[in-house]
Each structure stands twice: as C-alpha cells, then as structure tokens.
Specification:
Blueprint: H1 2-10, H2 30-45, E1 58-63, H3 69-80, E2 84-89, H4 98-108, E3 111-115, H5 119-128, E4 133-135, H6 143-157, E5 164-168, H7 173-184, E6 188-192, H8 201-214, E7 218-221, H9 224-228, E8 233-236, H10 248-255, H11 262-265, E9 273-276, H12 288-291, H13 298-317
Parallel strand pairs: 1-2, 1-3, 3-4, 5-6, 5-8, 6-7, 8-9
Helix pairs in contact: 2-6, 2-13, 3-13, 4-5, 6-7, 6-13, 7-8
The protein binds phosphoric acid mono(formamide)ester and norvaline.
Norvaline binds at residues 137, 172-174, 237-238, 241-242, 277.
Length: 318
C-alpha cells in the first residue's frame, strides 16, 4: 500500500483524519475539517491530478436504505480516484453477526462506507473492522452531506465566520451534522422545529460547546420567522425521513407551518441561499418556486458531494 502514501506526499495532501474513521462529524478536529474543505476545493479544481490516488484499492459500500446521490457519488468518486467499489444492499447483521461481516469486509476491501438505520451499526462496524468506516447517513448524522454543504457555502460566501445558516424542520440527522460543522467553522446556526421534533439533546450540548469555542451563536426556536431573520442560507429537509413513513400523516400536519415558501424566504436576507440535501418533497417542506429560485444551490450541493467524498476517501486512506 505504498503507492497512495507516495501520492499523498507528491500532491501535498493533508495528514490523515486522526480518528481513522468518519462515523460522525465529531470524528473531525477543527483543523481536519478545514483540511477536508481545502482538499475538496483542490479536487474540484484539478480532478486529473488525483486520478490515481486510490489505485489498487477497493471500497465496500453497504446500504440498508435507498440512495441516489450518496451511492452514485461514492461509486464515481472511488472510480475517478482509480479505485473500485463493491456494493451490498440489505440490513447489516440480519443474516450473520455484524462483527463477522466487519471482519470479512476488512480482508477484501480497504474501507467501508455504510448507510444504516442505527448509528450503533456504524459505531459497531468501526469497532470491529480494521479499515476506515465512513458514515453515509444514519439516524443521527449525515457527515458527508454536511461537508459538501459547508463547501457549497464557502464557494458562495468565502469565510463562513459570522454568517448565519438557518435550518427549518425536523431536528434530524442532516440538522445534527450541519449544526456541528457550522458552529465549528464559526458560522451562526439557527434551528426552528415544531414542538416534539427537537434535535438530540446530547448533540445540542456538543454543538453549544463547539459554538462557545468558535464564538458562533446557536439559536433554537419554534418560530421559523425568528430563525430566518438575517439568514445567509436557509436549509430544509424532508419532514419524514427514511424509516419514519408510518408517521407521515401526523408529520405533514405538524410541519405545515414550517414550510420554506416565498413568504418565509422574504424575511431572510435577499441574498440568502436556499439549500436542501435532496430528495425534496415539493409542496411539503419547500415550494417549487423556492427550490427553483435563482438563490437555490441544491444542485451545487449535489455536485459537491462528489468532490467532498473524494477528499474524505483521500484523507482516510492516504
Ligand atoms: N442527500 C442524499 O444523501 O441523497 P441520497 O439519499 O439520494 O443519497
Ligand atoms: N433526513 C433524510 C435525509 C435523506 C438524505 C433521511 O434520513 O431520510
């Protein structure tokens, strides 16, 4: 495995991610997050320079849930870096113990990318596998999405310190990863959710601690108008995440006042970007007019998943 290390030196790549995994955003130190953003920019600017950094490497992609963007951008990222991917669909641990699966995969492949229902499945894979594990979305976090989103915001605003990102909707996996990354970078973060759909209290406490370090402000409210005041970007996500389909009718009723529509957007800065991880349910969490508006960056976010995940793979495997 000397070739990728030599590549890392030649290309002046940043050091590895010290945790050895990306199980959540909390695995990244501040300087590692900055290095990932910097490497994402380089990979986007000069993809050909990095075309061989994963030569001879194979990556396992495990999916318990559906995916368009994450699966295809990981497959493309791995192939464009000179490696190859193998894919397995289905619930991890249904047919045999997870600890056995992890110790099969690490004999064949050099990293594991997993989309799971439970964060515990990601953490257990990282415990048992001797190769890096990357969280491709769990019930708690979506760190690959948040990295691409921070990069998208940097492309639009440059330095994020003092800017304000507002998330309207469920205190879910996407919101958790966004709040951790945003405040770490000194970006103010506002979350507006209906009562009963709070963010995880432990993640909120960790976000508060990171905000205290960076000087960022964290606002949590039930009032969407308060949250979007002075926002530089407004983000939303589906009201019903994968695995919650049986709650859909109740969620639609409770989240309707939290729709991101023209009236709400008009209360933010006129330049405020509209963001969504996709897939979107137009007419529910966002109107067609807002997602199709000139300030919408949803397809930049989707494109940047590719570049950001190349950076994650490069830093974990170099
Ligand atoms: N945003 C995102 O993760 O999309 P997929 O569910 O299609 O992977
Ligand atoms: N919160 C959504 C994100 C999809 C990318 C879900 O978990 O289904």
């Amino acid at each position: 495995m000397a070739a990728p290390a030599r590549f890392a030196q030649t290309l002046n790549m940043p050091a590895r991610i010290s945790a050895g995994n990306l199980t959540s955003d909390l695995d990244l130190k501040h300087e590692e997050l900055l290095s990932l953003l910097d490497l994402t920019a380089k990979l986007k600017r000069s993809p050909a320079r990095y075309a061989k950094s994963l030569t001879g490497r194979y990556i396992s992609l495990l999916f318990e849930k559906p995916s368009l963007r994450t699966r295809l951008t990981f497959e493309l990222a791995i192939k464009q870096l000179g490696g190859d991917a193998v894919v397995s669909m289905g619930i991890i641990g249904d047919r045999e113990p997870l600890k056995d699966i992890a110790r099969n995969l690490d004999r064949w492949t050099q990293a594991i990318v997993a989309r799971t229902f439970s964060q515990k499945t990601i953490d257990d894979l990282a415990t048992w596998a001797s190769v890096p594990v990357i969280n491709a979305l769990s019930d708690m976090y979506h760190p690959c999405q948040a990295l691409a989103d921070m990069f998208t915001l940097q492309e639009r605003f440059g330095d994020l310190r003092g800017r304000k990102l507002t998330f309207i909707g469920d205190g879910n996996n996407v919101a958790h990863s966004l709040m951790l990354c945003a405040v770490r970078l000194g970006m103010n973060f506002a979350l507006a959710h209906p009562k009963g759909y709070e963010a995880n209290p432990d993640i909120l406490r960790k976000t508060e601690a990171l905000a205290a370090d960076s000087g960022a402000e964290l606002i949590v409210t039930n009032d969407p108008a308060e949250a979007v005041h002075n926002a530089d970007a407004i983000y939303t996500d589906v009201w019903t995440s994968m695995g919650q389909e049986d709650q859909s009718a109740q969620r639609i009723a409770e989240f309707t006042p939290y729709q991101v529509n023209e009236k709400l957007v008009a209360q933010a800065n006129p330049h405020a970007a509209f963001m969504h991880c996709l897939p979107a349910k137009r007419g529910e969490e966002v109107t067609d007019a807002v997602i199709e508006s000139p300030n919408s960056v949803v397809f930049d976010q989707a494109e940047n998943r590719l570049h950001a995940q190349k950076a994650i793979l490069s830093m974990l495997l170099s």
